[in-house]
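Re: the 112-residue chain
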Amino acid sequence: MSQTARRTQLVGGGLPVTRVRSDAGGGGPAHRFAAGPGYVYVQVADHIVARIGAGELVPNSRLPGERDLAKEYGVAQGTIRRAVQELRDRGLVVTLPAKGTYIARAEQSASG
């Protein structure tokens, strides 16, 4: 049976950050999100935008599935679903039914 440990700590400038660590193999989620006001799905969307900007996720590539992203970020699938909707609203991704969600081409996202 896996256990999850949650610990809130203050980081640079006194910003509280909740770290989530799973004791089941794999080490848990690789990302941390600021505790406090603001929606987690927006923080996830912003992090994905940063990954696009850094070249980790390139235009026309497929975004990992909701289940994989939920596990990677340590959040519920519904949170990922809302984050992807946020990215669609920003014009950064395109979802094709039964195909997946893809990073929009640079000129496509710039025009939206």
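The longest strand covers residues 4-11.
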